[in-house]
Design goal:
The chain is α/β, with parallel strands linked by helices. Helices cover 64% and strands 10% of the residues. It is elongated and about 115 Å long.
Length: 531
């Protein structure tokens, strides 16, 4: 968390200065309260009125600092929150395909929402409260010197005791907070999974399952949250106990000093107000510090993906043409899906991979796309061993289209360009090759027509064609199709596959369970797996 305060140190310095002005106004007003009471006791109306005016002006000044502080604190907090989200997403970008899928995507969503809210409310807000209370407390301690040193000494001893008490339960609070974040991640997974299955549940008249699953998940979050608040309450009670003892002690000591005429009667009012500020500050500092400590495990969780060792890759150099497989093997849980596979794919040629389910067809494409690197043997692209080079370089050349491509909420243009700067001509040309030109022309808004969440306004076949257009627009020269036209009617699928076969600039490797005779005649090779 310190990193983000340093990142925006100028903004935080200005905020602290505003806090300081408000604290000074409050403390001076508290000291002047003694003058008001002393003047009243002495029937010195002029001094009393002047003192009341000063106290009023100082309180107005304090209110003005609040008007400045609250919105500016929100602005600075959001700057730091955005920086945290940026760091998290940049760390996610560096994860390998396998490392990313070791976690449920909704866990990352929970990090960027629930955990960030916890950091904002308990972390940053807590730090600013601690700064405010510290400045106020120190100012009040200094002000007590104006009355008598013994009051200051007693206040310091009591303050240290009050700070120490809540530390007895700090570890329990941190453990409870970490448990809450884990339950929130699980709950996010339940919500995402359940709502995405709405259509299926609707078809089976099982929509009541939505409420049941979410209610069950919510109860677990509630249980961990109640436990967290219970631990925080113990911390607050310990801090409040020290606060109460300190305030009563200062009041009694001030009364004794006044009785002995060491300080004035009016000073009792001032020391009472100042001691309240001191012990209120100390008591609340312990509570806020406990809240701040609650977010430490969250940052440690974030750091876990930042600390993933980044491998040192070989430079991607084009030495050869084609894709060469030699003694390539891959296993899941020590069970080989294929062993010592030898094959060569020439660039510009067209190939089909066929075989029964479970024979490793999709696994092979995932190796060629750089997703799976824990294979044995050799798989080379342009002379580069796939597991030795950065997957980014591989995917600059290769497009992978599976049976259920992901479509982003937004427009046709957004989904084809992926926010790259493509001309309309490039996008339309890709749509035409993918057989989607006429559909988009009929769409309201055409390229800028919104296709809904996950492309819900498109059919399954149209989604596949849109994903194909995306790859063609990005200039990929190697096309990996994993049943990439399976959602299309036979006539449309055949037309698109024929167009791909005719393009001499493309290397096409396709998985199919239904190889059409016309396509088979156009192929340069067929790789049989599982035979």
């Amino acid at each position: 968390m310190k990193k983000y305060f340093k990142l925006y140190w100028k903004e935080n310095t200005l905020l602290i200065f505003i806090i300081l002005l408000g604290a000074v106004a409050q403390i001076v007003a508290s000291v002047l309260n003694a003058n008001v009471l002393n003047a009243l006791i002495a029937f010195d109306w002029r001094t009393m009125i002047v003192s009341i005016i000063w106290v009023t002006l100082l309180q107005i000044a304090y209110i003005v600092t609040l008007l400045m502080k609250i919105p500016y604190q929100a602005k600075v907090t959001q700057l730091m929150v955005t920086a945290i989200r940026k760091d998290i997403t940049q760390s996610i970008e560096k994860l390998s395909y396998q490392a990313f899928h070791d976690k449920h995507s909704s866990s990352f969503a929970s990090w960027l929402t629930n955990d960030i809210n916890t950091i904002e409310e308990n972390g940053f807000a807590g730090i600013y409260e601690i700064i405010t209370l510290t400045i106020t407390g120190i100012g009040a301690i200094i002000a007590l010197l104006y009355f008598h040193w013994s009051i200051l000494l007693f206040s310091l001893i009591s303050a240290i005791f009050t700070l120490w008490l809540p530390q007895l339960v700090t570890k329990r609070v941190q453990e409870a907070t970490l448990e809450v974040t884990h339950e929130e991640e699980k709950f996010m997974q339940i919500v995402t999974d359940t709502l995405q299955g709405f259509d299926t549940l609707f078809s089976y008249n099982l929509l009541s399952r939505i409420t049941r699953r979410i209610e069950e998940g919510s109860k677990k979050v509630a249980q961990s949250t109640v436990n967290q608040h219970t631990q925080v309450t113990y911390s607050a009670i310990l801090g409040a106990s020290g606060n109460l003892i300190g305030q009563i002690g200062v009041w009694v000591l001030s009364a004794v000093l006044a009785f002995r005429q060491v300080i004035s009667i009016g000073s009792i009012s001032a020391t009472e107000g100042l001691s309240f500020q001191i012990f209120n500050s100390v008591g609340n500092i312990t509570n806020y510090w406990t809240q701040v400590r609650m977010v430490y495990p969250i940052f440690e969780k974030f750091a876990s993906i930042e600390q993933v060792d980044q491998p040192i890759y070989d430079k991607f150099v084009v030495d050869e043409t084609g894709i060469d497989l030699k003694k390539l093997s891959y296993a899941y849980d020590n069970q080989f899906v294929f062993e010592e596979l030898d094959y060569h794919f020439n660039f510009g040629h067209k190939y089909a991979i066929i075989g029964p389910s479970g024979s490793g067809k999709t696994t092979l494409l995932n190796i060629l796309n750089g997703k799976l690197t824990n294979y044995t043997g050799s798989a080379r692209l342009m002379g580069n061993e796939l597991k030795a080079v950065d997957g980014f370089d591989i995917r600059q050349e290769v497009m992978y289209l599976d049976q259920t491509p992901y479509i982003f909420e937004g427009t046709i243009r957004d989904n084809v360009s992926l926010n790259n700067d493509f001309s309309d001509e490039t996008i339309w040309a890709a749509l035409k090759k993918a057989g989607l030109e006429a559909t988009v022309q009929d769409l309201n808004g055409q390229l800028d027509g919104n296709i809904g969440e996950s492309g819900r306004l498109l059919s399954g076949g149209q989604k596949q064609r849109l994903a194909l257009a995306r790859g063609l627009a990005h200039g990929k020269s190697i096309i990996l199709l994993d049943e990439g036209t399976s959602s299309l009617d036979q006539e449309t699928a055949l037309k698109i596959e024929k167009d791909l076969m005719k393009d001499p600039s493309l290397t096409v490797i396709m998985i199919t369970h239904h190889l059409h005779s016309e396509i088979e005649a156009s192929l340069d090779g067929i790789l049989h797996l599982g035979t």
